[in-house]
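Student: Hello, beginner here. Can you help me understand the protein record under this note? Any guidance would be welcome.
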Amino acid sequence: MKILYILALLVLGQGAFAQITSSEFIYDKAPFPSCHASTIEETPTGLVTAWFGGTEERHPDVGIWVSRMVNGKWTAPIEVANGVQNSTIRYPLWNPVLFQMPASKGGELLLFYKEGPTPKDWWGMIKRSKDGGKTWSNTERLPLGILGPIKNKPVMLKDGTLLCPTSSEDNGWRVHFEMTKDGGRTWTRTEAINDGKEFSAIQPSVLFLKDGRLQILCRSKNGYILEAYSSDQGKTWSALKAISLPNPNSGTDAVTLKDGRQVLIYNHVTKESQEWGGKRSPLNVAISSDSKTWKELAVLENEPKAEFSYPAVIQTKDGKIHITYTWKREKIKHVVITL
């Protein structure tokens, strides 16, 4: 299942080599035909992934599935959450997000996800694991008005606040932020930073800049990835504006590396492309040293008329970059890049 690549890519102007050292499917067979919206996290006992799977997106049988890396191999997927309400009502689940709390904050692995018929009227849920994803607590429903991180991972601020990038789709596509200092037990939130009209944005990723500011990169309906900046640790944000990279209304993710550079995973599909308005291919990796100028690092997939989408990206303690993404809605793929 694992494929090793010899190819090394020189990133011009960045002074670094990138090598795809591993590319594999999380599973070969599963008890569901369709999957989407993966997330990945490093725990003290190893890597953990999660995604939603079922008949198809929005189907009531869609649940949250988890796999762990054990002795270099991914465990068989296990369903850890479903939307069963009673004997006659079951809702689909959506967009899991994993986050490992630091030991100083209790060390729980948090699993956020959404439950409800559609993104316009879903609500936030959370489960907790104290053993790296082997076992999970009962489900907790988040307070009214709190959704949790909508697709991409939260970030831990210096003051111990877990900043969750989130968004809503019930009155236009709007971005806001939710904060918790106690592992998701109590919450505060900001108002939306956009009106959903001039710029339609959802699913932000949070980056740390060298000057102390925060930056977000968002999926949009505007043809480009959108950005905004905060100088007060996420309480207020600048107006959204487009960056140079295209976005065909498809999810992205980004991470700040230990050396201060930024890595972004996205579909480089422009309005002039035959793929515009259709499938999500190619799937690209870009890197930036200043959060403004982006250079190609790798192309993960480029099969025409196929879907490679909804990436998640982290950097592990050993410095490697781990990426998961939807592969044709049939499987979840895991790629490792070494810089």
